[in-house]
Specification:
Blueprint lengths: L15 H23 L10 H7 L23 H33 L2 H37 L1 E2 L13 H6 L20 E2 L14 H4 E3 L7 H6 L3 H4 L1 E3 L3 E4 L9 H12 L14 E5 L5 H6 L5 E6 L7 H7 L4 E3 L14 E7 L11 H9 E10 L8 H16 L2 E7 L2 E6 L4 H4 L53 H6 L4 H29 L18 E4 L6 H8 L5 E7 L6 H6 L4 E4 L12 E7 L1 H6 L7 H11 E12 H13 L3 E6 L6 E7 L9
Parallel strand pairs: 1-2, 6-7, 6-9, 7-8, 9-10, 13-14, 13-16, 14-15, 16-17
Antiparallel strand pairs: 3-5, 4-5, 10-12, 11-12, 17-19, 18-19
Helix pairs in contact: 4-21, 16-17
Length: 689
């Protein structure tokens, strides 16, 4: 949305009746002045004489000569008289031309219809608003150098810094019982500095090698933390001097393969490869360890989003992202997660550290909100299998509460329990009278929660997206919604098809531009087993303005082995429900706040139309702040693609060059008013002491 005009008068339309009134007053005043000069003589002047006397008054007093006769300029005879006549004729001609011009302008104005004048006016107003917006942005650029003069590299303590997650400050504010790990944005000071990579940082190994082997120096974890970890996925790590290896199917003990096979059998399937046939595509893995479940299920075309609390060291999220798997910092504490209702086909929690029986079951209500109708909740915990009184009491509360949520317990084996959420809304009305929790009101049950306080009511039941996963198309057909499904999001098939086609073309252009840039400088990394280019250099992708998710879809259709974090800005229209229903992962986010992830998370950041969206808002931050955040998110030698209008691209280039990024502007085509800005973040590494 363009900014409104607050200064200047350009483009303001004066009403026609105001002009007529002004003309009438001017004419009356002129005639009055002329009559005053003329006096009472010559009561019946010639018709052509009066206008000239009004326009060219004689210098004689009261217009009377000394002999008492009024001078007549039309009397011929002397040369002086002829000269005066010629001058009057020329003046008359000029006046006549002016009158004709005014009359033509008047009739041209009258001939314009009200609708046409409205189009001209509003079009001109849009130009004015765009101009003011550009000027404000240019002003922002002019302020940037003063900031950039102070811009330096951050100190070592910020190598793994995640803004909004400061445990020490939260403890000082009185947060406890796990709430100290909650997200608290707004109080932290902005770090206007560029992050340096750790001393021994190395470019991650290419996919798929990087899924199973990562560099120790790239993550903040110690050998003691690896050896002392006790969860299923954490045990599946082997540590040497430089690398951590993940063994998801080790013969030494039961691995993730056996565990996922067990879950499939509990649901009634032959193995995990059949999850797709039951409607499962997206999984939210809560407290995911180091992403081994998602790494294994990736082979079955299942997309697993790992979430875990912020951890000062030994981070589950950081290691999962380093492996090239979807992850973000998030926690079940006091706020709703930034996903719409009915987002995931399965929720998984294996010793995830969440006490589901605490806080009167409100955390289970949030899990229910995120789960699609007919979806599965998988929980592995010693509580379900323990024999002591305390554990049995806790287990009974969770069991009964899940029943009140209309979850059907399918099976229990050892420590693992699988529930299935109802796909029938009438289940809630058939509960016993007064059974908690109640249903949320229609006004509360919206699709745009952004770290909203947890609520003690069941959400999603009023949504038009309440469709069982069995009734939805299986992946990959889910990626192409039909006419009725698109109508839920207010879209027409032609609009959706046009968007999809444009992104297929854009991805082809992107890769034709990126491939020579990437592989001319990096022919091969040591220790990699590379598939043919351009699959191997990019794995983790962040789309800052995902819209319908078309960029993500086009990447997969073109065979790129990537995953995309689809971000829907809070300043734009919320199409995240559509993105989730298509079978992708994404999140709502305010880009004036830090993105919930660790530094050096993404290989590629994509922003199409993002600058236009953000510059049209009343922002609480500058684009300079956002670009510093992008620098934090990018891995060394990572890439940025920005697509926008020419003025905004030039503005972005002015910022990126000062951020030490290598940038080049590329014309899309000669008829387009948009440009591409392709940048690469340099590899700045902290020197060893």
């Amino acid at each position: 949305m363009s900014r409104p005009l607050y200064r200047g008068v350009s483009g303001i339309r004066i009403p026609d009746n105001t002009l007529d009134s002004w003309d009438s007053q001017s004419k009356d005043k002129t005639e009055k002045d002329g009559l005053d000069k003329k006096g009472s003589s010559d009561p019946s002047p010639l018709p052509l004489k009066s206008p000239f006397r009004l326009l060219f008054a004689d210098n004689s007093k009261n217009g009377i000569t000394e002999n008492g006769f009024s001078p007549d300029p039309f009397i011929l005879g002397t040369p002086r008289s002829r000269h005066k006549l010629i001058l009057l004729f020329m003046k008359f001609s000029i006046v006549f031309i002016v009158i004709l011009a005014l009359a033509g302008s008047f009739w041209w104005t009258v001939s314009i219809s009200t609708t046409s004048r409205g189009h001209i006016f509003h079009g001109y107003r849009r130009l004015q608003e765009k101009l003011v917006s550009d000027l404000l942005d240019i002003g922002e650029i002019s302020d940037a150098p003063s900031k950039l003069k102070e811009l330096d590299f951050c100190s070592q303590e910020f190598e793994n810094y995640v803004p909004c997650f400061n445990v020490s400050d939260n403890l000082a504010q009185g947060y406890s019982d796990g709430n100290e790990f909650d997200r608290q944005c707004g109080r932290e000071l902005r770090q206007n500095c560029l992050l340096l990579s750790p001393t021994n940082y190395k470019i991650p190994l290419r996919w798929p090698t990087g899924r199973d082997v990562i560099w120790v120096s790239n993550v903040k974890i110690t050998a003691q933390e690896v050896l002392s970890s006790g969860s299923l996925t954490k045990r599946m790590m082997m540590l040497d001097e430089e690398q951590i290896s993940f063994r998801s199917a080790s013969l030494m003990f039961d691995g993730v393969e056996d565990y996922s096979h067990q879950i499939a059998e509990m649901i009634g399937l032959r193995n995990e490869s059949n999850f797709i046939q039951t409607g499962v595509r997206t999984i939210l893995d809560i407290g995911c360890g180091y992403g081994s479940l998602g790494a294994h299920l990736f082979h079955s075309q299942l997309l697993t989003m790992c979430i875990a609390n912020y951890e000062p060291s030994g981070s589950q999220v950081q290691l999962t992202l380093e492996r090239g798997l979807p992850a973000m910092v998030a926690s079940f504490t006091t706020k709703q997660l930034p996903y719409p209702s009915l987002s995931f086909d399965m929720l998984h929690c294996a010793r995830c550290g969440i006490d589901w029986d605490q806080k009167d079951g409100i955390l289970l209500i949030e899990a229910d909100r995120l789960l699609k109708p007919g979806g599965y909740f998988v929980w592995s915990s010693p509580i379900t299998y323990a024999r002591n009184q305390d554990s049995q009491t806790r287990w009974k509360f969770i069991h009964d509460f899940a029943e009140n949520l209309c979850w059907d317990m399918l099976s229990q084996q050892d420590e693992t329990v699988v529930w299935k959420k109802t796909s029938k809304r009438k289940c809630y009305s058939s509960r016993k009278n007064g059974s908690p929790p109640p249903l949320c009101s229609r006004g509360y049950d919206v699709e745009s929660p952004y770290y909203r306080e947890l609520q003690n009511c069941i959400g999603g039941t009023h949504s038009s997206r309440w469709v069982s996963i069995e009734e939805r198309d299986n992946w990959p057909s889910r990626d192409h919604p039909n006419k009725n499904e698109l109508a839920i999001y207010g879209l027409q098939p032609d609009e959706f098809a046009e968007d999809s086609e444009s992104w297929r073309t854009a991805v082809q252009n992107y890769w034709s531009l990126l491939s020579p840039l990437i592989f001319s400088d990096h022919p091969k990394r040591p220790g990699d087993e590379d598939p043919p280019p351009p699959f191997n250099m990019l794995r983790n992708v962040l789309d800052m303005n995902a819209h319908f998710g078309g960029f993500n879809s086009a990447l997969l259709q073109s065979g790129k082995s990537v995953w995309v974090m689809n971000v829907v800005p809070m300043s734009g229209f919320n199409y995240l429900p559509l993105i989730q229903d298509r079978g992708y992962v994404g999140v709502l986010h305010d880009w004036c706040e830090a993105f919930p992830t660790y530094p050096r998370s993404y290989d590629l950041v994509h922003a199409a139309g993002f600058l236009s969206l953000e510059t049209g808002q009343q922002r609480k931050c500058t684009l300079f702040d956002i670009f510093i955040e992008i620098d934090r998110l990018l891995r060394p030698e990572g890439w940025i693609i920005i697509r926008d209008s020419v003025p905004l691209i030039e503005m972005a280039r002015a910022l990126t060059t000062r951020l030490k990024w290598d940038a080049r502007v590329i014309e899309i085509d000669s008829d387009s008013d948009q440009r591409l800005l392709i940048c690469q973040k340099p590899f700045f590494k902290r020197q060893a002491n």
